[in-house]
Protein backbone atom coordinates (compact mmCIF):
# COMPACT_ATOMS: atom_id res chain seq x y z
CA UNK A 1 0.00 0.00 0.00
CA UNK A 2 1.27 3.48 -0.93
CA UNK A 3 2.31 5.94 1.80
CA UNK A 4 -0.12 8.45 0.19
CA UNK A 5 -3.13 6.39 1.28
CA UNK A 6 -4.52 7.33 4.74
CA UNK A 7 -4.45 4.25 7.01
CA UNK A 8 -7.92 4.96 8.42
CA UNK A 9 -9.37 5.10 4.89
CA UNK A 10 -7.67 1.85 3.90
CA UNK A 11 -8.94 0.16 7.06
CA UNK A 12 -12.50 1.42 6.54
CA UNK A 13 -12.64 -0.01 3.00
CA UNK A 14 -10.57 -3.15 3.59
CA UNK A 15 -13.50 -5.58 3.55
CA UNK A 16 -14.52 -4.56 0.05
CA UNK A 17 -11.64 -2.71 -1.63
CA UNK A 18 -7.85 -2.82 -1.41
CA UNK A 19 -6.39 0.60 -2.20
CA UNK A 20 -3.20 0.47 -4.24
CA UNK A 21 -2.16 4.04 -5.11
CA UNK A 22 -3.38 7.58 -5.78
CA UNK A 23 -4.41 8.27 -9.38
CA UNK A 24 -5.23 11.93 -8.97
CA UNK A 25 -6.51 14.71 -6.75
CA UNK A 26 -9.18 17.30 -7.50
CA UNK A 27 -11.10 20.07 -5.82
CA UNK A 28 -13.78 17.73 -4.49
CA UNK A 29 -12.23 14.27 -4.26
CA UNK A 30 -9.15 12.08 -4.40
CA UNK A 31 -9.20 9.11 -6.79
CA UNK A 32 -7.44 5.84 -5.98
CA UNK A 33 -6.63 2.75 -7.97
CA UNK A 34 -8.14 -0.13 -6.01
CA UNK A 35 -8.86 -3.85 -6.28
CA UNK A 36 -12.48 -4.95 -6.01
CA UNK A 37 -12.19 -7.92 -3.62
CA UNK A 38 -15.61 -9.28 -4.52
CA UNK A 39 -15.43 -9.15 -8.32
CA UNK A 40 -11.62 -9.36 -8.65
CA UNK A 41 -11.20 -6.37 -10.92
CA UNK A 42 -9.36 -3.06 -10.89
CA UNK A 43 -11.54 -0.03 -10.17
CA UNK A 44 -11.20 3.73 -9.75
CA UNK A 45 -12.43 4.67 -6.28
CA UNK A 46 -13.14 8.34 -5.57
CA UNK A 47 -13.30 9.59 -2.00
CA UNK A 48 -14.84 12.98 -1.28
CA UNK A 49 -12.69 15.35 0.73
CA UNK A 50 -13.56 15.11 4.46
CA UNK A 51 -14.78 18.70 4.76
CA UNK A 52 -17.11 18.34 1.79
CA UNK A 53 -18.41 14.97 2.98
CA UNK A 54 -19.24 16.43 6.40
CA UNK A 55 -21.08 19.36 4.81
CA UNK A 56 -23.15 17.24 2.42
CA UNK A 57 -24.21 14.47 4.73
CA UNK A 58 -24.33 10.79 3.84
CA UNK A 59 -28.00 10.32 3.02
CA UNK A 60 -28.38 13.33 0.77
CA UNK A 61 -25.29 12.54 -1.28
CA UNK A 62 -26.06 8.83 -1.74
CA UNK A 63 -29.64 9.66 -2.71
CA UNK A 64 -28.54 12.10 -5.41
CA UNK A 65 -25.78 9.87 -6.79
CA UNK A 66 -28.34 7.13 -7.50
CA UNK A 67 -29.50 9.25 -10.46
CA UNK A 68 -26.04 9.08 -12.04
CA UNK A 69 -25.92 5.34 -11.36
CA UNK A 70 -28.95 4.81 -13.63
CA UNK A 71 -27.24 6.25 -16.70
CA UNK A 72 -26.41 3.53 -19.23
CA UNK A 73 -24.69 4.70 -22.40
CA UNK A 74 -21.70 3.33 -24.37
CA UNK A 75 -19.81 6.61 -23.92
CA UNK A 76 -20.61 7.19 -20.24
CA UNK A 77 -18.41 5.65 -17.56
CA UNK A 78 -20.78 3.62 -15.43
CA UNK A 79 -21.04 3.87 -11.67
CA UNK A 80 -20.29 0.51 -9.98
CA UNK A 81 -20.85 1.36 -6.35
CA UNK A 82 -21.13 4.14 -3.79
CA UNK A 83 -21.31 4.29 -0.03
CA UNK A 84 -19.95 5.50 3.29
CA UNK A 85 -17.26 3.86 5.40
CA UNK A 86 -15.64 5.24 8.53
CA UNK A 87 -17.01 8.70 7.78
CA UNK A 88 -15.68 8.66 4.19
CA UNK A 89 -18.08 9.15 1.25
CA UNK A 90 -16.96 7.31 -1.88
CA UNK A 91 -18.11 6.10 -5.27
CA UNK A 92 -16.58 3.49 -7.57
CA UNK A 93 -16.14 3.44 -11.35
CA UNK A 94 -14.38 1.14 -13.83
CA UNK A 95 -10.64 1.73 -14.08
CA UNK A 96 -9.76 2.93 -17.60
CA UNK A 97 -6.13 2.32 -18.50
CA UNK A 98 -6.20 4.60 -21.54
CA UNK A 99 -5.02 8.19 -21.30
CA UNK A 100 -7.41 11.08 -20.77
CA UNK A 101 -7.96 13.80 -23.35
CA UNK A 102 -5.91 16.09 -21.12
CA UNK A 103 -2.92 13.76 -21.43
CA UNK A 104 -3.36 13.65 -25.20
CA UNK A 105 -3.40 17.43 -25.46
CA UNK A 106 -0.54 18.03 -23.04
CA UNK A 107 1.79 15.65 -24.81
CA UNK A 108 4.68 16.12 -24.76
CA UNK A 109 4.63 18.07 -26.92
CA UNK A 110 1.48 20.13 -26.28
CA UNK A 111 -0.50 20.09 -29.47
CA UNK A 112 -3.79 20.84 -31.17
CA UNK A 113 -5.76 18.14 -32.93
CA UNK A 114 -6.86 18.14 -36.53
CA UNK A 115 -10.50 18.91 -37.25
CA UNK A 116 -11.40 15.26 -38.04
CA UNK A 117 -9.66 14.09 -34.85
CA UNK A 118 -11.42 16.67 -32.69
CA UNK A 119 -14.86 15.94 -34.13
CA UNK A 120 -14.31 12.18 -33.78
CA UNK A 121 -13.95 12.81 -30.04
CA UNK A 122 -16.62 15.50 -29.71
CA UNK A 123 -19.44 13.62 -31.45
CA UNK A 124 -19.60 10.64 -29.02
CA UNK A 125 -19.23 13.00 -26.06
CA UNK A 126 -22.10 15.15 -27.37
CA UNK A 127 -24.20 12.03 -27.88
CA UNK A 128 -23.56 10.97 -24.28
CA UNK A 129 -24.53 14.42 -23.06
CA UNK A 130 -27.71 14.45 -25.16
CA UNK A 131 -28.73 11.11 -23.67
CA UNK A 132 -28.10 12.32 -20.13
CA UNK A 133 -30.01 15.53 -20.75
CA UNK A 134 -33.00 13.50 -21.90
CA UNK A 135 -32.70 11.62 -18.61
CA UNK A 136 -32.75 14.92 -16.73
CA UNK A 137 -29.06 14.87 -15.73
CA UNK A 138 -26.48 17.58 -16.39
CA UNK A 139 -22.78 16.85 -16.17
CA UNK A 140 -21.64 20.34 -15.04
CA UNK A 141 -17.93 19.53 -15.26
CA UNK A 142 -17.05 18.65 -18.85
CA UNK A 143 -13.29 19.10 -19.33
CA UNK A 144 -10.42 17.13 -20.91
CA UNK A 145 -9.66 15.38 -17.59
CA UNK A 146 -13.16 13.87 -17.58
CA UNK A 147 -12.92 12.49 -21.13
CA UNK A 148 -11.14 9.13 -21.00
CA UNK A 149 -10.29 6.66 -23.75
CA UNK A 150 -11.12 2.97 -23.68
CA UNK A 151 -9.82 1.06 -26.67
CA UNK A 152 -9.61 4.37 -28.48
CA UNK A 153 -13.22 5.33 -27.77
CA UNK A 154 -14.00 8.48 -25.74
CA UNK A 155 -15.79 7.88 -22.42
CA UNK A 156 -17.27 10.64 -20.25
CA UNK A 157 -16.35 10.17 -16.58
CA UNK A 158 -17.81 11.62 -13.37
CA UNK A 159 -21.23 11.95 -14.95
CA UNK A 160 -23.69 13.46 -12.55
CA UNK A 161 -21.22 13.70 -9.66
CA UNK A 162 -21.16 17.49 -9.76
CA UNK A 163 -24.97 17.43 -9.86
CA UNK A 164 -25.11 15.10 -6.87
CA UNK A 165 -22.74 17.30 -4.89
CA UNK A 166 -24.44 20.59 -5.81
CA UNK A 167 -27.96 19.28 -5.18
CA UNK A 168 -27.03 17.69 -1.87
CA UNK A 169 -25.13 20.80 -0.82
CA UNK A 170 -27.87 23.23 -1.79
CA UNK A 171 -27.45 26.94 -2.45
CA UNK A 172 -24.84 27.34 0.30
CA UNK A 173 -22.31 24.99 -1.28
CA UNK A 174 -20.27 27.74 -2.96
CA UNK A 175 -19.64 29.33 0.45
CA UNK A 176 -17.71 26.25 1.54
CA UNK A 177 -14.91 26.91 -0.97
CA UNK A 178 -15.48 23.63 -2.84
CA UNK A 179 -15.77 24.31 -6.58
CA UNK A 180 -18.62 22.72 -8.52
CA UNK A 181 -17.19 22.84 -12.01
CA UNK A 182 -13.80 23.94 -13.32
CA UNK A 183 -12.78 27.56 -14.04
CA UNK A 184 -12.19 28.08 -17.73
CA UNK A 185 -14.68 25.35 -18.65
CA UNK A 186 -17.80 26.16 -16.64
CA UNK A 187 -20.45 28.38 -18.19
CA UNK A 188 -20.86 32.02 -17.13
CA UNK A 189 -24.09 31.23 -15.30
CA UNK A 190 -22.47 28.33 -13.47
CA UNK A 191 -19.46 30.47 -12.58
CA UNK A 192 -21.88 33.07 -11.19
CA UNK A 193 -23.22 30.47 -8.76
CA UNK A 194 -26.66 30.04 -10.32
CA UNK A 195 -28.32 26.75 -9.39
CA UNK A 196 -31.11 26.69 -12.00
CA UNK A 197 -29.07 25.45 -14.94
CA UNK A 198 -30.08 23.70 -18.15
CA UNK A 199 -28.32 21.75 -20.88
CA UNK A 200 -26.72 24.90 -22.27
CA UNK A 201 -24.23 24.88 -19.41
CA UNK A 202 -22.88 21.59 -20.83
CA UNK A 203 -23.04 23.02 -24.37
CA UNK A 204 -20.71 25.79 -23.22
CA UNK A 205 -18.24 23.41 -21.56
CA UNK A 206 -18.18 21.10 -24.58
CA UNK A 207 -17.56 24.08 -26.88
CA UNK A 208 -14.56 25.06 -24.72
CA UNK A 209 -13.16 21.53 -24.99
CA UNK A 210 -13.62 21.48 -28.78
CA UNK A 211 -11.98 24.91 -29.03
CA UNK A 212 -9.05 23.64 -26.99
CA UNK A 213 -8.70 20.55 -29.17
CA UNK A 214 -8.63 22.66 -32.35
CA UNK A 215 -6.61 25.66 -31.17
CA UNK A 216 -4.41 24.09 -28.48
CA UNK A 217 -5.63 26.32 -25.66
CA UNK A 218 -8.88 27.48 -24.03
CA UNK A 219 -10.48 30.72 -25.34
CA UNK A 220 -9.41 32.70 -22.25
CA UNK A 221 -12.35 35.11 -22.37
CA UNK A 222 -16.05 35.07 -23.13
CA UNK A 223 -17.01 36.24 -26.63
CA UNK A 224 -18.82 39.57 -26.79
CA UNK A 225 -22.31 39.92 -28.23
CA UNK A 226 -20.74 41.57 -31.29
CA UNK A 227 -18.50 38.51 -31.70
CA UNK A 228 -21.51 36.19 -31.55
CA UNK A 229 -23.35 38.26 -34.15
CA UNK A 230 -20.26 38.31 -36.37
CA UNK A 231 -19.61 34.59 -35.84
CA UNK A 232 -15.98 35.36 -35.13
CA UNK A 233 -13.71 35.58 -32.08
CA UNK A 234 -12.95 39.28 -32.48
CA UNK A 235 -10.52 39.45 -29.55
CA UNK A 236 -8.59 36.25 -30.25
CA UNK A 237 -4.82 36.47 -29.83
CA UNK A 238 -2.56 36.24 -32.87
CA UNK A 239 -1.67 32.59 -32.21
CA UNK A 240 -5.33 31.66 -31.74
CA UNK A 241 -6.33 33.63 -34.84
CA UNK A 242 -3.93 31.61 -36.99
CA UNK A 243 -5.54 28.34 -35.90
CA UNK A 244 -9.09 29.73 -36.10
CA UNK A 245 -8.49 30.91 -39.64
CA UNK A 246 -7.24 27.47 -40.61
CA UNK A 247 -10.41 25.72 -39.37
CA UNK A 248 -12.65 28.00 -41.40
CA UNK A 249 -15.49 30.46 -40.66
CA UNK A 250 -18.21 27.80 -40.36
CA UNK A 251 -16.50 25.98 -37.50
CA UNK A 252 -15.43 29.22 -35.83
CA UNK A 253 -18.98 30.55 -36.00
CA UNK A 254 -20.36 27.37 -34.43
CA UNK A 255 -17.86 27.63 -31.58
CA UNK A 256 -18.64 31.32 -30.95
CA UNK A 257 -22.36 30.53 -30.68
CA UNK A 258 -21.64 27.60 -28.40
CA UNK A 259 -19.73 29.94 -26.09
CA UNK A 260 -22.22 32.82 -26.09
CA UNK A 261 -22.84 34.40 -22.69
CA UNK A 262 -26.53 35.05 -23.34
CA UNK A 263 -28.81 32.02 -23.34
CA UNK A 264 -30.82 33.24 -26.30
CA UNK A 265 -27.62 33.48 -28.36
CA UNK A 266 -26.03 30.19 -27.26
CA UNK A 267 -26.59 26.96 -29.17
CA UNK A 268 -29.43 25.15 -27.40
CA UNK A 269 -28.19 21.53 -27.35
CA UNK A 270 -25.00 19.55 -27.74
CA UNK A 271 -26.43 17.74 -30.77
CA UNK A 272 -27.16 21.11 -32.42
CA UNK A 273 -23.57 22.19 -31.71
CA UNK A 274 -22.20 19.10 -33.46
CA UNK A 275 -24.60 19.59 -36.35
CA UNK A 276 -23.33 23.14 -36.85
CA UNK A 277 -19.71 21.96 -36.68
CA UNK A 278 -20.20 19.16 -39.20
CA UNK A 279 -22.85 20.68 -41.46
CA UNK A 280 -22.13 20.16 -45.13
CA UNK A 281 -19.29 17.70 -44.55
CA UNK A 282 -21.17 14.44 -44.80
CA UNK A 283 -22.83 12.80 -47.79
CA UNK A 284 -21.96 12.58 -51.48
CA UNK A 285 -21.62 15.73 -53.53
CA UNK A 286 -22.39 16.23 -57.16
CA UNK A 287 -19.29 16.97 -59.24
CA UNK A 288 -19.51 19.71 -61.88
CA UNK A 289 -17.52 19.78 -65.08
CA UNK A 290 -15.68 22.86 -66.36
CA UNK A 291 -18.47 24.04 -68.71
CA UNK A 292 -21.08 23.81 -65.94
CA UNK A 293 -18.87 25.74 -63.55
CA UNK A 294 -18.36 28.53 -66.11
CA UNK A 295 -22.10 28.76 -66.68
CA UNK A 296 -22.79 28.99 -62.94
CA UNK A 297 -20.05 31.54 -62.29
CA UNK A 298 -20.62 33.76 -65.34
CA UNK A 299 -23.52 35.77 -63.97
CA UNK A 300 -22.03 36.08 -60.49
CA UNK A 301 -18.71 37.38 -61.78
CA UNK A 302 -20.45 39.89 -64.06
CA UNK A 303 -22.39 41.20 -61.03
CA UNK A 304 -19.18 41.38 -59.03
CA UNK A 305 -17.52 43.38 -61.78
CA UNK A 306 -20.31 45.86 -62.46
CA UNK A 307 -21.56 46.49 -58.95
CA UNK A 308 -18.91 45.54 -56.43
CA UNK A 309 -20.34 47.31 -53.40
CA UNK A 310 -24.07 46.98 -54.01
CA UNK A 311 -26.09 45.19 -51.36
CA UNK A 312 -26.53 41.57 -52.32
CA UNK A 313 -23.72 41.51 -54.89
CA UNK A 314 -21.64 38.34 -54.51
CA UNK A 315 -17.87 38.64 -54.43
CA UNK A 316 -15.60 36.06 -55.99
CA UNK A 317 -14.80 34.87 -52.49
CA UNK A 318 -18.50 34.33 -51.90
CA UNK A 319 -18.81 32.40 -55.16
CA UNK A 320 -15.89 30.22 -54.09
CA UNK A 321 -17.49 29.50 -50.72
CA UNK A 322 -20.82 28.64 -52.34
CA UNK A 323 -19.15 26.48 -54.97
CA UNK A 324 -17.16 24.72 -52.26
CA UNK A 325 -20.42 23.52 -50.70
CA UNK A 326 -21.20 21.57 -53.86
CA UNK A 327 -17.69 20.25 -54.42
CA UNK A 328 -16.23 22.83 -56.82
CA UNK A 329 -12.56 23.56 -56.16
CA UNK A 330 -11.60 27.26 -55.69
CA UNK A 331 -9.09 27.17 -58.52
CA UNK A 332 -11.84 26.06 -60.93
CA UNK A 333 -14.00 29.01 -59.89
CA UNK A 334 -11.08 31.39 -60.37
CA UNK A 335 -10.35 29.95 -63.80
CA UNK A 336 -13.97 30.53 -64.80
CA UNK A 337 -13.85 34.10 -63.47
CA UNK A 338 -10.69 34.84 -65.47
CA UNK A 339 -12.72 34.47 -68.65
CA UNK A 340 -14.73 37.58 -67.75
CA UNK A 341 -12.02 39.92 -66.49
CA UNK A 342 -12.12 43.69 -67.08
CA UNK A 343 -9.51 46.37 -66.46
CA UNK A 344 -9.32 47.56 -62.89
CA UNK A 345 -9.43 51.32 -62.30
CA UNK A 346 -7.73 52.73 -59.20
CA UNK A 347 -10.06 55.08 -57.28
CA UNK A 348 -9.28 58.77 -57.48
CA UNK A 349 -7.26 60.10 -54.56
CA UNK A 350 -8.90 62.34 -52.00
CA UNK A 351 -7.94 65.98 -51.80
CA UNK A 352 -5.42 66.81 -49.04
CA UNK A 353 -6.75 68.10 -45.71
CA UNK A 354 -7.00 71.89 -45.64
CA UNK A 355 -6.46 74.19 -42.67
CA UNK A 356 -9.17 76.69 -41.75
CA UNK A 357 -7.38 79.96 -40.95
CA UNK A 358 -10.05 81.04 -38.49
CA UNK A 359 -9.55 78.08 -36.18
CA UNK A 360 -5.94 77.33 -37.11
CA UNK A 361 -6.74 73.71 -37.97
CA UNK A 362 -8.83 71.49 -40.24
CA UNK A 363 -12.59 71.32 -39.75
CA UNK A 364 -12.83 68.13 -41.84
CA UNK A 365 -10.25 65.35 -41.93
CA UNK A 366 -9.94 62.81 -44.73
CA UNK A 367 -7.61 59.82 -44.85
CA UNK A 368 -7.31 57.30 -47.65
CA UNK A 369 -5.45 54.03 -48.14
CA UNK A 370 -6.01 51.92 -51.23
CA UNK A 371 -5.53 48.19 -50.67
CA UNK A 372 -5.58 45.98 -53.73
CA UNK A 373 -7.69 42.98 -52.78
CA UNK A 374 -11.07 41.59 -51.87
CA UNK A 375 -12.15 41.76 -48.21
CA UNK A 376 -14.40 38.81 -47.30
CA UNK A 377 -17.73 39.88 -45.82
CA UNK A 378 -17.00 37.82 -42.69
CA UNK A 379 -13.99 40.07 -41.97
CA UNK A 380 -15.87 43.41 -41.99
CA UNK A 381 -16.62 43.08 -38.27
CA UNK A 382 -12.89 42.86 -37.51
CA UNK A 383 -12.21 46.21 -39.18
CA UNK A 384 -15.26 47.86 -37.58
CA UNK A 385 -14.26 46.59 -34.16
CA UNK A 386 -10.74 48.04 -34.53
CA UNK A 387 -12.18 51.45 -35.51
CA UNK A 388 -14.64 51.35 -32.61
CA UNK A 389 -11.91 50.39 -30.17
CA UNK A 390 -9.70 53.34 -31.12
CA UNK A 391 -12.28 56.07 -31.86
CA UNK A 392 -14.12 56.06 -28.57
CA UNK A 393 -14.71 59.83 -28.87
CA UNK A 394 -14.84 60.24 -32.65
CA UNK A 395 -16.22 63.51 -33.98
CA UNK A 396 -15.43 65.81 -31.08
CA UNK A 397 -12.76 67.78 -32.95
CA UNK A 398 -14.84 68.35 -36.07
CA UNK A 399 -17.88 69.38 -34.06
CA UNK A 400 -15.78 71.89 -32.11
CA UNK A 401 -14.39 73.28 -35.34
CA UNK A 402 -17.79 73.88 -36.90
CA UNK A 403 -19.34 75.45 -33.81
CA UNK A 404 -16.25 77.58 -33.19
CA UNK A 405 -16.21 78.89 -36.74
CA UNK A 406 -19.65 80.40 -36.30
CA UNK A 407 -18.48 82.38 -33.32
CA UNK A 408 -15.27 83.47 -34.95
CA UNK A 409 -16.85 85.57 -37.71
CA UNK A 410 -18.30 88.20 -35.42
CA UNK A 411 -17.24 91.65 -36.55
CA UNK A 412 -17.20 93.17 -33.08
CA UNK A 413 -15.19 91.17 -30.58
CA UNK A 414 -14.86 92.48 -27.03
CA UNK A 415 -11.47 92.12 -25.39
CA UNK A 416 -12.56 89.19 -23.21
CA UNK A 417 -14.03 87.47 -26.25
CA UNK A 418 -10.79 88.05 -28.14
CA UNK A 419 -8.78 86.44 -25.42
CA UNK A 420 -11.21 83.54 -25.39
CA UNK A 421 -10.95 83.31 -29.16
CA UNK A 422 -7.15 83.17 -29.17
CA UNK A 423 -7.11 80.62 -26.35
CA UNK A 424 -9.69 78.44 -28.06
CA UNK A 425 -7.85 78.74 -31.36
CA UNK A 426 -4.64 77.52 -29.75
CA UNK A 427 -6.41 74.65 -27.99
CA UNK A 428 -8.15 73.64 -31.18
CA UNK A 429 -4.90 73.66 -33.17
CA UNK A 430 -3.22 71.41 -30.65
CA UNK A 431 -6.22 69.12 -30.34
CA UNK A 432 -6.71 68.76 -34.07
CA UNK A 433 -2.99 68.14 -34.59
CA UNK A 434 -3.09 65.37 -32.00
CA UNK A 435 -6.20 63.91 -33.63
CA UNK A 436 -4.52 64.00 -37.02
CA UNK A 437 -1.62 61.95 -35.68
CA UNK A 438 -3.98 59.46 -34.00
CA UNK A 439 -6.09 59.05 -37.13
CA UNK A 440 -3.03 58.65 -39.32
CA UNK A 441 -1.80 55.86 -37.01
CA UNK A 442 -5.26 54.27 -37.07
CA UNK A 443 -5.44 54.36 -40.85
CA UNK A 444 -2.00 52.79 -41.11
CA UNK A 445 -3.04 50.05 -38.69
CA UNK A 446 -6.26 49.45 -40.62
CA UNK A 447 -4.30 49.27 -43.86
CA UNK A 448 -2.00 46.63 -42.37
CA UNK A 449 -4.98 44.72 -40.93
CA UNK A 450 -6.90 44.77 -44.22
CA UNK A 451 -3.82 43.61 -46.13
CA UNK A 452 -3.77 40.54 -43.88
CA UNK A 453 -7.48 39.85 -44.40
CA UNK A 454 -8.07 40.56 -48.08
CA UNK A 455 -8.18 37.99 -50.80
CA UNK A 456 -6.15 38.88 -53.91
CA UNK A 457 -8.67 39.78 -56.62
CA UNK A 458 -8.74 38.65 -60.22
CA UNK A 459 -9.59 41.68 -62.34
CA UNK A 460 -12.17 41.44 -65.12
CA UNK A 461 -11.34 41.52 -68.84
CA UNK A 462 -13.51 43.14 -71.51
Protein topology:
Blueprint (H helix, E strand, L loop, with lengths): L6 H7 L3 E9 L3 E8 L4 E8 L1 H7 L1 H12 L11 E5 L2 E7 L6 H6 L8 H20 L12 E4 L2 E4 L4 H9 L18 H4 L8 H16 L9 H6 L7 H10 L1 H10 L11 H9 L11 H17 L9 H10 L4 H9 L2 E2 L37 H11 L5 H13 L6 H39 L9
Polypeptide structure, described:
By secondary structure, the chain is α+β, with helices and mostly antiparallel strands. The protein has 3 domains: 7-94, Phosphorylase Kinase, domain 1 (2-Layer Sandwich); 101-278, Transferase(Phosphotransferase), domain 1, CATH 1.10.510; 377-394 and 402-454, no CATH class. It has helices at 7-13, 50-56, 58-69, 101-106, 115-134, 161-169, 188-191, 200-215, 225-230, 238-247, 249-258, 270-278, 290-306, 316-325, 330-338, 380-390, 396-408, 415-453; strands spanning 17-25, 29-36, 41-48, 81-85, 88-94, 147-150, 153-156, 341-342. The strands form 2 sheets. A 5-stranded antiparallel beta sheet has the order 1-2-3-5-4. A two-stranded antiparallel sheet has the order 6-7. β6 (147-150) and β7 form a beta hairpin. The N and C termini lie far apart (85 Å). Mean pLDDT is 77; it is low at 308-313, 342-347, 393-413 and 456-462.
Amino acid sequence: MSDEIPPDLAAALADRYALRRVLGRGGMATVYLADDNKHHRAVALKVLLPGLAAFLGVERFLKEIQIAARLQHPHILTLHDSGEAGGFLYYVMPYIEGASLRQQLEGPPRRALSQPQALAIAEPVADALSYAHRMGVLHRDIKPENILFSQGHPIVADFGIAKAVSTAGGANLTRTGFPVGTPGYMSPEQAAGLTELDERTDVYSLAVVIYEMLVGDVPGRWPTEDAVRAGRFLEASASHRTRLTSIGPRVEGALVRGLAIRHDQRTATTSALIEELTRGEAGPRRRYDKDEVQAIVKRATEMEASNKTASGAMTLGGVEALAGEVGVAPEVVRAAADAFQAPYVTPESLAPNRTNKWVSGPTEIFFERVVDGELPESEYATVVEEIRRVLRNAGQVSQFGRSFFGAAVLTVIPVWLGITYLTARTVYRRTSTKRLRELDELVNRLEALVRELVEVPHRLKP
